Amino acid sequence: MSKWTEKLPEAAREFIAGRRVDEVECIIADIAGVARGKAMPASKFAKQANYFLPNSIFLQTITGEWADNPAGSFTEPDMILVPDFSTATAAPWTADVTLQVIHDAEDQAGRPVPTAPRNVLKRIVELYNAEGWQPIVAPEMEFFLVARNIDPNMPIIPPMGRSGRRAAGKQAYSMSAVDEYGKVIDDIYDFAEAQGFEIDGILQEGGAGQVEINLAHGDPVALADEIFFFKRLIREAALRHDCFATFMAKPIEGEPGSAMHIHHSVVDKKTGKNIFSDRKGGETPEFMHFIAGMQTHLPAAVALLAPYVNSYRRYVPDFAAPINLEWGRDNRTTGLRVPISGPEARRLENRLAGMDCNPYLGIAASLACGYLGLKAGKMPRAECTQDAYNMETDLPYNLGDALDLLEEDAALREALGVEFCNVYDSVKRNEYKEFLQVISPWEREHLLLNV
């Protein structure tokens, strides 16, 4: 075994199983959460001390365009990519023996690049650590399996199931519904096992072809890495069976959207105890402060939790997505839900994030809101014990409004990093501007001859 392969996690070593590694993919998440980087022969990876990418990748929009650099002139200097060998994992869908390794981005002076999403999340975790806290998250991933769609002008439709019929909606938790595309699910399990990932459960969600995967709770950076990897492996599993997997927030008209619900708790690093529960098992003031921080800062954080124009199509009443920031115990109509649990597992579920968000940035933004609440020490609004869909909304209606709110929240910008927020704003306003240039079928149908 070569020197660098000795650093690999157990699952990666088991995947190799004495075979020669052919290729290593050196990857990093851009602002959208897209894997950027380069692949190289394993022999070259073993010999090369440094890997480089231009820092301009964090100015690239989802359409492939380049946003304006908020700092002004730009010479596209190289970043140094530093492999995090704890993330090394298989790419089990490839024909040869291939490993993926997530890299951290440093500038040429060895400092973390502040616009790299993984560094943004690490920055937030360090804020907690400085207070003696360790944040814990448990994400839920929702996505759709859909029929292949190669024409953007055509609507997305559900995939064909093993019965020969298209997947149907309104079948939440149905075992027979999820069995319709069981071969895709089998490959997801196989790929996850080969990559050393633990799936807490897979279930049919409410949409036609909509699936939910729950992940076990743990360290925020490690879980964001897993979601980053999971998106790729799920897409690869779907392609093997003549369908697409999409993490778009609202891909099918009339169906619910896909969320990335995030469960949060915070542990005292010295005692290992959940700071949301006291010695008698009751709720602590810190738990209330955390909720208050969410209610105060989430309107601004929505720009990161709902990063595209399509994201805001999720926030409609009675479609399993929140429309406000009310909180309640075991109340799924609220944006902030306190699930049933014992004192040691007391947590808050943020139901706002869409599955289209960058997992590093979505988790970072959510944790930042809670952190600011813990520091401010304020109390939340009274618990919502009714149907929150009957209450007023307090979320931005579109991406432009969300970016305005982020620009106005100085505390959240400081927590996430002002330089990062400026770059994020530039990228997203560029995407929003591009969207506004597109004339939709609805406009042509109803306005062309009628106005």
TrEMBL record:
Residues 117-451 form the GS catalytic domain. It comes from Paragemmobacter amnigenus. It comes from the Bacteria. Keywords: ATP-binding, Ligase, Magnesium, Nitrogen fixation, Nucleotide-binding. InterPro entries: Gln_synt_N, Gln_synt_N_sf, Gln_synth/guanido_kin_cat_dom, Gln_synth_cat_dom, Gln_synth_gly_rich_site. Belongs to the glutamine synthetase family. Residues 10-110 form the GS beta-grasp domain. Its cofactor is Mg(2+). Coiled coil: none annotated. Catalyzes the ATP-dependent biosynthesis of glutamine from glutamate and ammonia. This is Glutamine synthetase family protein.
